[in-house]
Amino acid sequence: MAIQFTLNEKPQSVDVNPNMPLLWVLRDTLGMTGTKFGCGMALCGACTVHINGAATRSCVTPVSSVAGKRVTTIEGLSPDRSHPVQQAWMEIDVPQCGYCQSGQIMSAAALLAKTPSPSDAQIDDALSGNICRCGTYLRIRQAIHRAAELHTARAKAGEASALSQARSSPVAKTAVAGGAR
Ligand code: FES
Ligand code: FES
Hints:
Bound molecules: FE2/S2 (inorganic) cluster
Strand content: 5-15%
Largest sheet: 5 strands, mixed
Structural class: alpha+beta
CATH topology of the largest domain: DNA polymerase, domain 1
Order of helices and strands: EEHEEEHHHHH
Oligomer: single chain
CATH architecture of the largest domain: Orthogonal Bundle
């Protein structure tokens, strides 16, 4: 029976063995190879995706368990690499060989969604299961702090723009002038 879920904001249906790991389905059935295979045992984090927003190891997640849920992969994090984590990663030039990096980025994005300005300890804790054989950990930590800054700056810019739009609307002008009831 087909298993249905949302993949990167689009409805997806796959007719596969329900016990097949989600990672296999993503890579082999759907051809989405941004998510990597490392250990296959939930030990390295290379296969990290978001399931309903939570960082999850897709190598040990049976595809049947995502039925009706939202799955996001590195390909769906943003349409144009504009996610603050992706921007910070490029700015700081984090990757070395690159193999672990989509998993690192997905774990970092899930962390920032919950904790917009994480401490070093919170970063180390959240990414402790993501292994990098090239040892890019210091740049990863630096990039997450930078992504937090970018995220905050965007939020402020969004608020300022919303406020200026509100000020220019006739209803808001009335409210700002003390005329609203
Ligand atoms: S491949 Fe999934 S944690 Fe290593
Ligand atoms: S960049 Fe090479 S394994 Fe992390």
